[in-house]
Automatic annotation (TrEMBL), chains A, B:
UniProt keyword Iron-sulfur, yes or no: no
Pfam families found in the cross-reference section: TetR_C_1
Any Gene Ontology biological process: negative regulation of DNA-templated transcription
GO molecular function, one term: DNA-binding transcription factor activity
Record InterPro entries: Homeodomain-like_sf (IPR009057), HTH-type_TetR-like_transc_reg (IPR050109), Repressor_TetR_C (IPR004111), Tet_transcr_reg_TetR-rel_C_sf (IPR036271)
High-level lineage: Bacteria, Bacillati, Actinomycetota, Actinomycetes, Pseudonocardiales
Organism expressing this protein natively: Lentzea aerocolonigenes (Lechevalieria aerocolonigenes)
Keywords, in A-Z order: DNA-binding, Transcription, Transcription regulation
Residue ranges of domain Tetracycline repressor TetR C-terminal in the record: 98-253
Keyword Iron-sulfur: no
UniProt protein name: TetR family transcriptional regulator
Length: 257, 257
DNA sequence: CAGGTTACTTTACGGCGTAAGGAGTGGCAA
DNA sequence: TTGCCACTCCTTACGCCGTAAAGTAACCTG
């Protein structure tokens, strides 16, 4: 299932995202934790365990119980919001337009691709949630800044920003899943994939005849980087060639009246 | 969190997906349920509650306990696999190429768009899982059949199929979320959205200055269909204009040497 | 008609997010 | 200096979840 980020109290979430924690002198024991520390711990845990991490696990990493976190953060949904935005701060806020928009968009897309590879759990946060945090804004702003330089109108740019964003996310998700597949069971992704397709071939030997066009799609394969596992090569190739098509589409839109 | 479909025993999953239930005369009480009935009930429950439906809810809809389902289906993951593939049977298996590939791809994309609107939970099943079931194959086969007619090589087609698929999924997810946003609390999506952006404007009044390019992106808006809610109009417009860019990109690839 | 297989139930376990209440800390007003 | 009380953090507990285990009753086959 999906964690819907942005489901908590909007005011509280947005305050946490934009204000940071305001430190005053206050009665009571000195806080041993902080929102920042909790968000960092959450990211570390999620990098290892995925979005299905538990509040207990985050607390444990900080030497506290799960309930201690609730002093700083309203709940798991809000924590995910904060983690989501925090990780995005790893990404550049602007790209050079010296060589035009095309290399800049390409760089943006590759940066996102690698980012998702570092933090696969980000892809498991609902991708349709509204943009909320400052770093998230900055990432989209960076892409928008590149594309505005094409001179296309807002109406078209919105579609293009969406298309690029969805495409990179989707492509990254295939490679993420390829890596994670064996994760739980410890199988390498190759083995896991072959186990499934072997069973499929056994049960449905005429598969190629039933879906001839899919068979055609399988032609013309050669690894980009032979040191990478098969599925990763595949995902990388699809990412690159799909991105080229998208960029050509933008170029066509720019060239038109 | 994400339900990873295809995490169960591969043989059992694939047998259920491709073989259907084999009926023999057997000792013991007559089965009151069937895999089909369970899958249908699961789809109905998921249409209402999303992917976070419970086995208890599915059982209840059939007048049984949750545990009764385990006689027919190995677990929730496998049930989701079956539900996923079953819903895909709603989609056409082939498209007319009389007017060329472009209208056919457009129709495919719109059919998918509406399909996701009917079954939003499908978008919450990990999008990167390997294709497993016959109807899922058929849907991709239909798209592949259209695109093979362009004469492009497999290498490029794989990227294109991926790009279209990711784009449609992503675009559909935004509208799905727009609809679901108020769902839990009963707010209309408009109100929910405005509540959030109002708080954001209050806390960060200089937002437009901080992210000027995003502000540019907001220009040039007019509703496609004024009877639709604001956010749905937005999503629909982005879907259509993004798709045009993608199609232009394919056209450019076809025109090239 | 017995035996064994099957459908389905009840009960239970270990996980989850988090509500409620209690213990101890330490700044500040009296 | 004292005592209040806001504060952090803990323990306990509740109601969910998926599903393992074991029991009950139905039915086909010998």
């Amino acid at each position: 299932m999906v964690v819907y980020a942005g489901q908590g109290d909007p005011r509280r979430s947005i305050e946490l995202l934009w204000r940071g924690s305001v430190v005053e002198s206050r009665p009571g024991p000195k806080p041993g934790l902080s929102v920042d520390a909790i968000v960092d711990a959450g990211i570390a845990v999620a990098d290892e365990q995925g979005i299905a991490f538990s509040m207990r696990a985050v607390g444990e990493r900080l030497g506290r119980t799960a309930m201690a976190l609730y002093t700083y953060v309203p709940g798991k949904n809000e924590l995910v919001d904060l983690m989501y935005d925090r990780t995005m701060s790893e990404l550049p806020g602007a790209y050079s337009l010296d060589d035009g928009w095309r290399p800049a968009v390409t760089q943006w897309a590759h940066d996102m691709w690698e980012f998702y590879g570092r933090h696969p759990w980000v892809l498991q946060v609902s991708q349709a949630r509204p943009v909320l945090g400052p770093h998230e804004f900055a990432v989209i702003e960076a892409l928008a800044a590149i594309l505005v330089s094409t001179g296309l109108p807002g109406r078209q740019l919105r579609g293009i920003v969406g298309a690029i964003n969805y495409f990179v996310r989707g492509a990254a998700q295939t490679i993420t899943e390829a890596r994670a597949a064996g994760g739980a069971t410890g199988e390498a992704d190759e083995e896991w994939w072959y186990a499934r397709s072997a069973v499929l071939m056994e049960l449905e030997p005429e598969l190629d005849k039933k879906f001839p066009m899919l068979h055609v799609l399988e032609n013309d394969r050669e690894p980009i980087d032979p040191s990478l596992p098969y599925l990763e090569n595949d995902a990388l190739e699809n990412f690159r060639s799909g991105l080229l098509v998208l960029l050509d589409g933008i170029e066509a839109a720019v060239a038109k009246p």
